Amino acid sequence: MTFLDIRGVTKRYGVTTAVDDVTLSVAAGSRTAIVGPSGSGKTTLLRLIGGFEAPDSGQMTLNGEILADGPAIVPAHRRSVGFVTQDGSLFPHLTIADNIGFGLDKRNPDRPQRILELMDMVELDTVMLGRRPHQLSGGQQQRVSLARALARQPKLMLLDEPFSALDTGLRENMRKAVAAVLKQAGITTILVTHDQAEALSFADQVAVMRQGKLVQAGSPRTLYLNPADRTTASFLGDAILLPAELGDGWIDCVFGRLSSATNKRRGTAEIMLRPEQLKLVAVPEKDATAAPDSNIGYGKVIDIEFGGAVCTVALAIVGNHGTRHGQTTSPVQIKCSAVNLPATGDHVRIEVLGEPHIFA
What we know:
alpha+beta, Rossmann fold, CATH 2.40.50.100, five-stranded antiparallel β-sheet, 9 helices, 23 strands, about 20% helix
C-alpha cells in the first residue's frame, strides 16, 4: 500500500531546477534510499518531503493526507515526520536526556520513562543521560539523534546522509543498528546517500536521481542487474560495458558468444556485466591462440593491480573476438577476487555466469 505519494514535484531556485517533475511512491513500513551524485537534487527532495521547502508545482500526500499542493504546504512541525541529519544537530548545551526529550512535554509525568525507553531502543547505556554531546563518540551522537527523532513517534523518518561522517566499520554497524530499530518500530523510512553500497544494503527500494530528475526506481536487485542506462550502471557498482552483436538467443562480444534472451532484438547494442559474473580460468597458451572455439572468449593478462580482496586485471582479448571491424579490441579491465588470481602473462579462458544486461 502506498504511504507516501509524490506526483510531479518540481522545485526551482532562480533559473536552476533542483527537482524536476519527480514522481515516486513509497510503501508503508518500507525503506527507500535516494541516491545520486552531488547536485542531483536528492537532498532538496528530502527537504520538500520534510516540509522545509515548498515545491513550485506537484503534489505530495502522506497516508492520504495532503502535505503539499504546489506552494501550499503543511508546515514541517505538523507533518509527523522525523529528521536525522549528517551531524545529528544535537544541542551542545543540553544533556543527552534533554536532547532526547526535547520534543516531549516536560509536564508529562511519563516523560522520564519515555526517555529511558528510547535509550534502550537505540542501545545506549543510561549512564550517558547526564552527559553532553561532546562527551559521546560520533556513533553514540547519531543514536541520540535517532532517539530524539523517534520520541514523537513519527509516521515517516527522513535520514540525510546520517552515517557519512563515521569511520567505515562504525558506519556499517550503525546502518544495521538503525535499520533494525526502524524495522522494529514499523516506521517508513527514506535515506538520502551518495554511497551506492549503503543504499543497496539498506533499502527495499532505491531511487536514482540525476540533474534533478528521477532516472529509475525499483528494488536494489533490479537496479543493480538491470540499470536504465550506462551512467546508472556505473554509479551503482563496478560495471563492464561492452559493444555487442545481438542474434536469436545469443550475444557476440569480446568474451565470446553468450546465451541471452534478446527478445527478438537484432544488430548492435551495448551490454553490461558485473565483475562477479566473470571467472578467469588459466589455460595453456596454445589453447587460447590456436584457432580457439569462436563461442569462447580467451585473453592474456597484461597487468594486475593488487587491491587486497579485489584486484584489477587488465586483459588483452585474443583470437577472433580480439578484433572488431578489423581493429584490435582495447584491453578490458576486470575486477577479480584475489583467490586463484592469474599471473601477468598468463592466458585465460573467460567464463561468464548468468546473462548480460542489454541496454535499451
